[in-house]
Amino acid sequence: MIPLAKPIIGEEEINAVVRVLKSGMLAQGPVVKEFEEHFAAYCGTKYAIAVNSGTAALHAALYGLEVRTNDEVITTPFTFVATANSILMANAKPVFVDVDQQTYTIDPKLVESAITLKTKAILPVNLYGQMCDYDTLNAIAKKHHVAIIEDAAQSIGADWHTQRSGSLTAAAAFSLYATKNIMCGEGGVVTTNSEQVAELAKRMRHHGQSEKTRYQYFDLGYNYRMTDIHASIALEQLKKIAEITTKRIMNAQLLTEGLQNIHGIKTPHVTPQTTHVFHQYTILIEEEFPYSRDTFVELMKQKGIGCAVFYPKPLHLHPHFMRLGYKEGDFPIAEKLATHVVSLPVHPLLTIDEIKTIITTIREIANG
Ligand SMILES: *Cc1c(COP(=O)(O)O)cnc(C)c1O
User: Fold this and answer.
1) Phi, psi (5° rounding) for residue 172?
2) Counting atoms of ligand 1 from 1, which one is nearest the CA of 55?
3) 3-state secondary structure at position 152
4) Is the CB of 79 under 6 A from ligand 1?
5) Does the Cβ of 76 fall within 6 Å of ligand 1?
6) pLDDT of 162-175, one tens digit each?
7) Cβ atoms within 10 A of the Cβ of 208, count?
8) Which stretches of the chain drop beneath a pLDDT of 70?
9) How many angstroms separate the alpha carbon of residue 177 from the centre of ligand 1?
10) Cα torsion at 137, 166, 171, 37 (round to 10°)?
11) Of 77, 213, 250, 325, which has the highest C-beta tally within 10 A?
């Protein structure tokens, strides 16, 4: 079986965990601080605040930007549920707009037309590891005085022009979940250049307390702290990120070369302004292909190749978002993608032979 994802866990991660266990200090402590310093330096931001999931990072970032009850936040329906759930967690309203046909990321033209007096923020998702169009999004945000939070859960190390994911907007939220490009099992990070956003995010992760004045609670907060055990893994992963990213990009290039000229298969579109870090390598199975997307997934699994669908149903068609008034037909591109995309293995531990097997298997399926 060629798995869809596989974490890289070496002696470095194992030894780092053992060091923390032997230190006797297991909760948030010096290793979290060290990880945050390295993470901020890597992203090119003033601050990085480590938390215990990507979802917590999104929630803390929204709080940091003062998204509150009845505010509107514009986002994409073609993403993982945590993106829009975090908006609900902030008691705000997710306002969906459709995605771009080529990149599957939020369509900036539609963002601008969705802005109202209640809009407080825009939450674009750097889907599959590719940056959104931040030239246009940042210009819209500036014109209408709204903030942008990158959902950077899938885009660590990606650049837009020469600027790194996490540093282009008011705040960004990363995930360190087990299958993400770098991981620690469960974890997340908020990045920002704003002292105020950083301070509010820190309060959010620690029951509303400022780190400077303990047992004084400024607001409702949560326990979103990361442990030193998790931070020790994340810190070792961060040291390997250049290698991990290069390998993913190289694997994607080999897949794209091998999958050219197959009738009914569209390989990923990479916009020239971005380095796509290929958290997922996602192809489109078009109508001309001899099998439906779902049959394709079954055939691949039968032949021992793990693949998966991100995401099989756009968010606006799930009950807790439909309750906000959304219905089928609202976002035709997202709805089409949900029934036509499939992600193939692209992780850094794939061998050249495995990549060749993936390509030949798909060519065999395409020939019926
Ligand atoms: C993984 C992911 C999240 C949530 O991160 P968790 O660490 O699982 O909470 C949010 N948004 C996107 C796009 C993701 O891929």
Assistant:
1) -145, 155
2) 9
3) coil
4) yes
5) no
6) 999 999 999 999 99
7) 16
8) none
9) 7
10) -160
11) 77
41 phi-psi bin (left φ>0, alpha ψ -120 to 50, beta other): alpha
Task: From 232, 268, 162, select the one nearest 16 (Cα to Cα).
Answer: 232
- Could you identify the residue written with the tokens 């829009």? 84
Identify which of 140, 183, 188 has the alpha carbon closest to the alpha carbon of residue 166: 188
Ligand 1 atom having least distance to the Cα of 179: 1
Rounded CA separation 84/96 (Å): 9
Query: Which pLDDT score is estimated for 321?
Result: 98
DSSP states of 213-269: STT-B-S---B-PPPHHHHHHHHHHHHTHHHHHHHHHHHHHHHHHHTTT-TTEEPPP
- Name the residue with the closest Cα to ligand 1, atom 2: 153
From the CA of 126, give the closest atom in ligand 1. Answer: 13
Q: pTM for the full model?
A: 0.98
Tokens of 22: 């032997």
Of all atoms in ligand 1, which is nearest to the CA of residue 86? 10
CA of 243 to the centre of ligand 1 (A): 22
